[in-house]
Amino acid sequence: MSNLKASRPLSVSQAISQRHSIHAFVRDRPVPRQILEEVFKVAQNSASNFNIQPWEVKVISGEKLSQVQDKLVKSLENGMPKEMLEPPAKFRDRIEKQGRVLHGEGFGIAREDKAGRHEVLKLNFKSYRAPCMALFCMDKGLATPDVASVGIYLENVILLLWEQGLGSIPQMTMAWYPEVFKEEIGLSEDLQIICGLAIGYPDEDANVVKVRIPKRRWEEHVTFWE
Predict the structure, then answer these.
(1) What is the Cα 54 distance to its own chain's centre?
(2) pTM higher than 0.90, yes or no?
């Protein structure tokens, strides 16, 4: 039985609809360890392929998180990694729209302001000042479809955090920097990073937290066959 007491009493549909990614956190307000433990306890009930529960989570905070972030920013400045892949053309328009809203409306940075946009990119590597990062991993020996199980678990963690008044933002960028995590937290060679998750209390005074990035219509993604 869980000891979680929701600070936001929500139905599942309300939590999914209200949740949004946070791009500015209160750095000096730590996330209580007890809440995190309870969130992961409840999330362990997530569905998974053959019930193998493939997720492994590394929770990083405090001075260790600062060290990880410093190395991530340094890697960025050094032009690493070089193997990042461009998404297929049909997805680039979606990425550009997100960028226009995030940079323009959220951070107030003009499209031609390359220096400003680079500073926002560095914020990403600093987890938008979140005091906590969870690294979601799975064994490299598992099949690609098993990533879906980790994704189910990840979404449940995100919604449980939201229920507790905590914001988060998935950070796929972390998957490209395994060496940083091997050096800083001794990440096993057997593990593949799926993503990071910045966790913390939203900075409600930040304009970027008030901005909502619109979603596509669900009908564009779902087809019925009878």
Answers:
(1) 18
(2) yes
